[in-house]
Amino acid sequence: MRFLFLLVLSSFSAFGQNSLHLHLQDTNKESLPFATILLKKTSDSSLVKGMNTDENGDLRVSKLPVGKFTLTIQSTGLKSIKLDLEEISADSKIELGIITLSPLSTELAEVKVTATKPFIERKLDKTIVNVENSAMAAGNTTMELLERSPGVIVDKDGNISLRGKSGAKVMIDGKISYLTGADLANYLKNLPADQISQLEIMANPSSSYDAAGTGGIINIKLKKNSNIGLNGSANATFAQGIYARESAGVNLNYRKNGWNWFGNGSVVNRTLLERNNLVRNFRAQNEVWENSFAYKNENQSTQLKGGVDWYFSKKTTLGILVSGNFNQYTLRDGLNKTTQNTTAGDALFRLNTINNVGNPSQNYAANFNVKHTYDSTGRELTIDLDYARFADNSTSNLKSQFLTGNFKPLRVDSLLINDAKSFVDQYSFKLDYVIPSFLKSKWGTGLKSSYVQTDNDLRFQGKNEGDAQFKFLTGQSNQFIYREQIHAAYLNTERAIGKFSYQFGLRGEWTVADGISEAYTSNVKDSTFHRDYAQLFPSAFIQYDYSPKHSFGFNYSRRIDRPNYGDLNPFVFFLDNYTFKVGNPMLTPQLTNSIELSHTFLGAFSTTFGYSHTTNVITEILKQDTEARISYQTTANMAERTNYSLGFSLPIPIKKWWTSNTDIYFNRAELEGKVENAALSPARNMFYINTNHIFTLPKDYRFEIGGNYFTGGLESAFIFGAGGALNLGIQKTMLNKRGVLRLNAQDVLFTSNPNVYIKYGDLDIVVRPRQDSRVVRLNFTYRFGNMAIKGARVRATGLDAEKSRVKTK
To answer: Which parts of the sequence belong to the Outer membrane protein beta-barrel domain (predicted)?
Structure first.
């Protein structure tokens, strides 16, 4: 360990409080966005820092290392240049002005890439995972990519927690996803990681983001092919788990006369085997009920996205972005075996439930946006108009066979048909205005209004074997309509004063919501409600650069989690006659206050301590009717949840050809509440480690090995056991650097399925999931067309927290 620590110390230079600014353009005086800037030591030309110009071709950086350095400036298809900088001191202010790159006279094949972005980057308010060019990402899904990201844990149901805090929100290109629960999990499982450029992980987002998301935000940035013009890329993947899986995708870009057109699409065909074993102990009755599930799921998904940016002038850009997802989920002859046993192991009763599900779903989204830059000071106005629609039509047939303990028919079979339709329409207007002031500070302000309507119609029909026709079940069928509007405004300011830098913000949100239950019988409990409330959400980020080696940070935020639309829905969804799930329209929002302290050494190694306290916690729980042997899952507001976390980030450059990043977290979660007057107070400690190593080998080979391990912890009111995964990947660049062949293996040891324990009140349940997680993938990607044209801008759209709450099952 001492040798490793000394090695780390010798790899970094001292950092100071200084700045550098330049503007990059080509010979046509067009800005060059996303160009590569490399800061190297003058003495040995070793790379110290890699940077990129922004979408306007500007580079503004601070806290550079002190000493003598050179600057290498590169943009694909243009001649690179090298500049000798004046010696950088702790307070240097370097203004390089406008720098022009001229075209290459040689073929593209002669251009050599000399540096890549590190896999993990740390910033003041976020952690960035650079997915592009990673062999581990190729051929994987986005959900699998999240599972191996620092501080992220995905449970058996696809719920995402960040640094031990549940309820993390997922953003797509700067907007919160309009899916949650099973829908979000399916989307992420069907979204190829090849389409991802970066992951931004924010434990405590600022006030400029929607206040929703007490568990933090993970922003998934999709690729906007950094080289625009007539160019693109195509990829194909074959994977083998228990069943084969295939996917293919294409990205196209075209730029001419101030217009930039772009589009991408993918087709995914995934067949999975889902296996679960659930054991319910009824100790007072000396009985053990065991459920064994074995489901073959077939998923077909087509995703399309396209848009255009019109550079109306050097200061004004208008854009349109449209997307669509078309998914077909099919479950054929899924068998759920339920056995009632004595504690001695004798079978008393058996129930076989055969389930067939067809679930086509579609979602569409459209965005119109305007961005206007007033002057060179950074004063900027952005406007977004959004519309999204989600449509889901699920039909399931449940056939129940009732048998005695020795497999003799107990009564005639029954058949239950479930027809569930769900429609969600969302509208949003968003305005953001950035104002640099004369006091060298930057102010941001903005407004947002959104309107959402959901319409869910669930109808049940049932019959016994021998009956002539199905009977409409009025007692279980229901229609639920939910309407919600949220109006928000925020003010944000940031400034650097000497060794201090800060960002303060305040956001206000006013929510009006109505739920209307249209029951098909008067016997169903009325679920109609009206809510009207306003909340303030402050945030603060402070950083103090004590010395070139040490900097300290503090951040605070207050955030809200509103119930998911699906959790508000009072519908009942059956697994079998004794196990089902039901919504809760009486749910109210939960509020979280979070504090984080951090220390950064040499600008790279970080230590963080976090604390959060949540009131009125929205928690998934199980309830049980012991006499009837019925267990069902629902969501309720529990009393309080407290989280403590201690984290270490260790990006270690072991050798020039061997880089690594390791994240270590210690977490304690405590929950205090009641379930039907029974006290509930689970608490668990968790140790988590995630490490990734990249080896750059001769002849354009690259090898990656990584994995994670966690000792178990607390998710909602459920306790999960230890788990982890070992992942391997290798890639070969070929065909004049336009083709990349990748081979990777995920969860090699088949250890990523932890058991779940539910013990409170009269509940004593163990769940043993065995998902199809061990997979080998082969992926090939080929880039074609003109690679010498500059990139499209990356932008966010306006439908944020509303989209994160669609949940239909």
So the answer is: 372-782
Looking at residue 31, what is its pLDDT?
79
Q: Residue 472 corresponds to which amino acid? A: F
Residues 382 and 370: beta-carbon distance below 8 Å: yes
* Rounded CA separation 444/438 (Å): 14
Residue 82's beta-bridge partner residues? Answer: 72
**Cα 482 from Cα 730, distance rounded (Å):** 49
605-636 pLDDT, tens digit each: 889 999 999 999 998 888 888 989 999 999 99
Size of the chain, expressed as the number of residues it contains: 809
- How do residues 709-747 score in pLDDT, each as one tens digit? 999 999 888 999 999 999 999 989 899 878 889 899 989
What Rg value do the Cα atoms of the chain yield, rounded?
Answer: 28
Name the burial class of residue 418, with classes exposed (0-12), middle (13-18) and buried (19+) by CB atoms within 10 angstroms of its CB: buried
Two tokens, residue 331? 């479950």
Q: What is the mean pLDDT of the chain?
A: 82
Question: Tokens for 216?
Answer: 């933090």
Both structure tokens of 46: 């070793």
Q: Which of 738, 726, 736, 727 is nearest to 780 (CA)?
A: 738
Residue with tokens 């009125």: 616
Calpha distance 171→177 (Å, rounded) = 5
For residues 139 and 333, the model is more confident at: 333
d(CA 146, CA 136): 12
- Largest Cα–Cα distance of the chain, in whole Å? 91
User: Residue 403 contacts by C-beta under 8 Å, 6 or more apart in sequence?
Assistant: 349, 350, 351, 352, 409, 410
Q: Which of 166, 279, 147, 144 is nearest to 713 (CA)?
A: 166
Measured at the CA of 279, the angle between CA 277 and CA 285, to 5 degrees, comes to 160
Q: Measured at the alpha carbon of residue 661, what is the angle toward residues 656 and 665, in degrees to the nearest 5?
A: 160
- The helix (H) or strand (E) run that includes residue 6 is helix 2-9
